Amino acid sequence: MASEEGKKQLASQQTVRLGDQAPDFTAQTTLGKLSLHEYIGDKWCVFFSHPADFTPVCTTELGKVAKLKDEWAKRNTKVIAYSIDSVEDHLKWIQDINETQNVTVDYPIIDGSDKSVAIRYGMLDPDTLTAEGLPMT
Length: 137
What we know:
This protein is α/β, with parallel strands linked by helices. It is built from 6 helices and 7 strands, in the order αββαβααβαβαββ.
């Protein structure tokens, strides 16, 4: 069962619907502080999320996204990732991804530790909770 703080987080989630402009936000990332809309500029964007750093499937997926760098560029597209962990954890994870997947992750991964982006995008899962009763992405 969600804790009181977990219930508060779930109740504050916003909804993003097909056809909506992606809500802007400013967040710390592995490439420094950035605004989503400024980062995207006049390009398309693939904004994808993973529940936690260092999970085996997520590691291979982020590696594959890095390997497709030239394909993203051909399509006028930028990528940005999100995970619930901190920038410090992301930087360690990037080292692991680069080593195990033989790539260079050079796109930003958003610091999700305060959950503000997850709340803004309605990404919190009411059925997957931490031991403290807080919702996860």
